[in-house]
Amino acid sequence: MYNLLSCLMSILTVLAPIFGLIVLGWALKRLGFLRERLVGIINNYVYYIGVSAIVFQSLHDTSVSLLLDPRVYLLSLLPMFGIVAIAYIVGKLMKLGPGIFAVFVVCALYGNTIYIGLPLNTLVQGPDAAGMTAFIATISTVVVFTLGVYILQHNATEHVEAGKLHKLPVIWAALLGILLSWLAIPYIIRLPLGLIAESTSPLALLATGAMIETSGFTADLKDIGVLSVLKLIVAPLLVVLTGLAVGFQGMAFKTSLLEAAVPVGVTNSVLAAQFKMDTKFASRAVVISTVLFAITLTIILFLI
Prior knowledge:
Layout: H1 2-30, H2 36-61, H3 64-67, H4 70-93, H5 98-109, H6 117-125, H7 130-155, H8 169-179, H9 187-210, H10 221-246, H11 250-261, H12 267-274, H13 279-303
Helix pairs in contact: 1-9, 1-13, 2-7, 2-8, 2-9, 2-12, 4-5, 4-7, 4-10, 4-11, 5-7, 5-10, 5-13, 6-7, 6-11, 7-11, 10-11, 10-13, 12-13
């Protein structure tokens, strides 16, 4: 009984701030404090600056041994490519419209690996898992901002400047983080970088809430239900199958599993906005998959 209550409290500790900020963003938009122009500015900040700061810091601070550990890449990349292929096929079979199809695929790929995944892994495995979690989350982010951006750009109905990969700051941030990993970052630089990184997820949640339209909220329930099954059940199952196939266990496996099991990431709403696609679908997917995550996470925690 104690373990059950402890598990439920841990889940509530992770989920409550997320829903709180999403609801706050929705309320501020309805009250007129978050106007469309300001939401656009927040989206650009998260997309171009915030995510880049997180990626740079994570790769810079990752140990060389972890960077060269093939287990991490296998357990992260193979399931990610697998879920993209499955989501692509499922999306085509469902005959999703052009404004939703690419968002559907990217949402299945990109989970809330930072804002949920990081505290979740440290709660379950202890503070030693923070470095591994940040690194796996960075791998996910880099894949989304390369493969995911390509999918969005390829399906965009109009030219979008943000789709040029060589102009994405996150790509250069990843390269610089690795190349400069042997140098210590001065405190005068590390401090503002840390503050920017810490502000990214809360602002992305506020923007997600602001982009939610309560009218017609149930319109995409079927599509989001299928998406939630892919993200919350199929994605972690692919990690389990990969782990069994290559014989990996321990922290790398458990961290990859928990990262794959998190709900749709809030940055998907920002990506949808950047490529002028269905932001309402992405925002609703974040909310609904996060609600369902409370159920699937409880099951996973009892199994691992």
